[in-house]
Amino acid sequence: MDVTDAQAVDQLVEQVLRRFQRIDVLVNTVGGYRAGTPVHLTPLDAWDLMLNLNARSTFVVCRAVVPVMLEQGHGKIVNVAASSALKGSANSAAYAASKSAVARLTESMAEEYKRQGINVNAVLPGTLDTPQNRQAMPDADFSLWVTPQAMAQVILFLASQGADPIHGALIPVYGRK
To answer: In whole angstroms, what is the distance from residue 32 CA to residue 56 CA?
Structure first.
């Protein structure tokens, strides 16, 4: 489904509630990467794609799920930003800006909802060891990258009761780079 489409997301939330009657954990993993040009050569459609895919999708899904969690009195939200959320680099302004937006959204939501039983945190992965990344960077040392399994373990912790006192954290998961 298109997670940038608010109506589609609202319909999905309704379907989930009909089936399970609750939503305890939301993990926003939708995102993408496009970079390679300096700002003055970055096409507007590339800028819009990064902001929509990375930031808008997170906002739209959170906006749909938070009312359910507020009614329940608890919930866990884990957003996936990126190490680029903290520091931009040459030729990746759109990507860095979109991931920074996810980080700021995470921090703002944590402050808004922590007294209402909702934890909101984010993970900031470095390069993930995926087939796509291996293909894009065949000469890299893959052993330094973050495995999807390692990322999942950090997300599982943030979704657990052990993370109850953690609000607004931006957890670096950089691997051994």
So the answer is: 12
CA atoms lying within 13 Å on the CB side of residue 1: 14
Question: At the fourth CATH level, which superfamily is domain 6-173?
Answer: NAD(P)-binding Rossmann-like Domain (3.40.50.720)
Burial class (CB in 10 A: 0-12, 13-18, 19+), 80: buried
Which tokens is 47 given? Answer: 């800028």
- Catalytic: 174? no
pTM: 0.95
- Rounded-to-integer distance, Cα 159 and Cα 153, Å: 10
Q: Mean pLDDT, consecutive 10-residue segments, the chain of 177 residues? A: 96 98 97 93 97 98 98 98 94 97 98 98 95 94 95 98 97 90
Among residues 33, 95, 113, 174, the one annotated as catalytic is: 95
